[in-house]
Every structure is written in structure tokens, then in C-alpha cells.
Design goal:
The complex is a heterodimer of chains A (about 80) and B (about 200). With about 80 residues, chain A is an all-alpha fold. Chain A is about 80% helix and about 0% strand. Chain A has a domain of about 55 residues. With about 200 residues, chain B is mainly alpha-helical. Helix content of chain B is about 75%, strand content about 0%. Chain B contains 6 helices and no strands. Classes of the chains: A mainly alpha (about 80), B mainly alpha (about 200). The interface between A and B is medium-sized, with 21 and 18 residues.
């Protein structure tokens, strides 16, 4: 069964608009601004650190692959 | 023409291209370990930042708890950073085949041992002043975070000692040295972050 495209768009829209804010969430609704900032900063830190490490390793491996390719080409030319 | 080409193709031996190694296995393995450990320290620092932000009356360190030796630890931090620089120099000498590599590696090792020893002396003084693992969340986090780093430093020092022993008898390979270095640079680079967050 093939669903029409608009139904997928509607489902996505419902997923975005349906959830209500979780007022028990200490990250978003702590009355103290310092606490809120600490939660947000650490959440961002823990989210982006692994991504940064993976992306950094990816770039390093790509650079190494190019270096190895140049070395191999040099060796083949000799 | 096509038949000729096919015949030519048949005459060429089909060999798979050799696998290109981008980095030694040890280095890649150590990188994965270091990433996992980086997340461990990130989790500890994050918990510390939140507990510090929620401290009663925004008072940190908590009332009645001793202050950390910021200046003395700054000197110790310099020693650790210096060990990283000396290890870099040792790596350069090793790649050139220079005999200075052994002495430089030993210097980096000695600076690392000095760092851990100095930390031990500081801990004894802090325990005497009343900062223990159970005296407050401040003490708990301090010993947990700094202790976790010291444990890593000890492991990395053991690695450096092993590398130095192999270098002395001419059995240290470039891959082995690179693997040990990755661990030590992690220990060196994570410390300034801990110092800034925990001590200052």
C-alpha cells in the first residue's frame, strides 16, 4: 500500500506540533537561570563532543588516505 | 578487435589491490579508547558543573571546606604540559633516528612522574585539612575527577616506561611509540580542562 506524500508531511507535522512541553524537565524549567544555563551548556557539551571526535577522526583519516595515495603514486612512478 | 581485447585482458593477471593502512592498528585502537575516556571525563565535568551551579547560596567551595592549592597546581600543570612538549621533541628525534630520543623520552616520563607525585603530596595535605571523599560533594567530585585523571596518568606513565625500555634496546617500533604517545597526549590535554573547571 502506497501512502500519499501529503500524509507523510501531515504525520511529520503532527510529530512536531503534538508534544507538549514537559514541565518537570529540570533542563528547561528550572527557575534559577544559573542552573538552566549549566544544564544547557553541559547538554550541548555532551552532545557535540562525541560528534566532534568522530568528525575529527573522519577528516584525519581522509587526510591520511590522501597522503598514502600520494606515497603510493610516488612509489609507482619510481 | 573485441576478441583481441578480451585476449589481452585474459593475459593480465588479476590481483586485488593491497589494503592501504592509514594508521597503525595500535593507534586506532588507542584512539577509540581515548574517545571513550574523553566521554567519561566529559560526564564527570558536566555533573560537576551542574552540582556547582546548584550549590547552596552559590557558595563554592562549600562553607568549612578547604580551598584547593591553585598556584601550586599551576606549577604542576606547567610540568605536565612541558612533558607533552618534550615527548613531541622525542618523537621528532626518534623519526630522525637521533640518539637524543631516549633522553627526551625519559625527561617526559620524569615530568609525568613528578606531576603524579606532586598531586599525591597535595592530596595528603588536603586530607589533613579536612577535604575527604565523604566530607562534601566538593570533596567527592574533586577526588573522583582528579583521581580518575591520576589513574590515567599512571597508566600512561607505565606505557612511556615500557616504550623507553624498548627504545633502549632498539626494539621500539614507530607504531608502538605513536600508540603510547596518543595516550600521553590525552592525559596532558585533558588536564588543563580539569584544572580550569575544578580548581578555578
Amino acid at each position: 500500500m502506497k501512502l500519499p506524500r501529503w500524509s507523510l508531511a501531515l504525520a511529520l507535522l503532527a510529530l512536531i506540533l503534538w508534544p507538549d512541553a514537559a514541565h518537570a524537565c529540570a533542563v528547561c524549567f528550572d527557575p534559577n537561570a544559573d542552573h538552566r544555563r549549566a544544564f544547557l551548556v553541559t547538554t550541548a557539551f555532551l552532545t557535540f563532543l562525541p560528534l566532534g571526535m568522530v568528525v575529527g577522526t573522519g577528516f584525519w583519516l581522509r587526510k591520511r588516505a590522501r597522503e598514502v595515495a600520494v606515497e603510493e603514486d610516488g612509489g609507482a612512478a619510481e | 578487435m573485441c576478441a583481441q581485447a578480451a585476449a589481452l585482458d585474459m593475459s593480465v593477471p588479476v590481483e586485488p589491490r593491497p589494503v592501504r593502512k592509514l594508521a597503525p592498528d595500535g593507534v586506532l585502537g588507542m584512539l577509540i579508547f581515548v574517545f571513550a575516556e574523553a566521554m567519561l571525563f566529559a560526564g564527570l565535568i558536566s555533573a560537576f558543573v551542574i552540582v556547582k551551579a546548584q550549590a547552596a547560596g552559590a557558595m563554592w567551595p562549600p562553607y568549612g571546606q578547604p580551598r584547593l592549592p591553585v598556584e601550586r597546581t599551576a606549577i604542576n600543570t606547567t610540568a605536565l604540559l612541558l612533558s607533552g612538549v618534550v615527548l613531541l621533541l622525542s618523537n621528532r628525534s626518534f623519526r630522525r633516528g637521533a640518539s637524543a630520543a631516549s633522553g627526551q623520552l625519559l625527561t617526559a616520563l620524569a615530568l609525568g612522574a613528578f606531576f603524579v607525585g606532586f598531586q599525591g603530596v597535595e592530596w595528603i595535605a588536603l586530607i589533613r585539612e579536612g577535604l575527604t571523599l565523604t566530607s562534601s560533594t566538593y570533596g567527592s567530585f574533586f577526588y573522583l575527577i582528579v583521581g580518575a585523571h591520576a589513574a590515567h596518568a599512571l597508566g600512561a606513565i607505565a606505557g612511556l616506561a615500557w616504550a623507553w625500555a624498548r627504545l633502549r634496546v632498539g626494539r621500539l617500533t614507530e607504531a608502538q611509540f605513536a600508540t603510547v604517545q596518543v595516550f600521553w597526549y590525552f592525559v596532558v590535554l585533558v588536564w588543563p580542562v580539569l584544572y580550569l573547571k575544578v580548581y578555578l
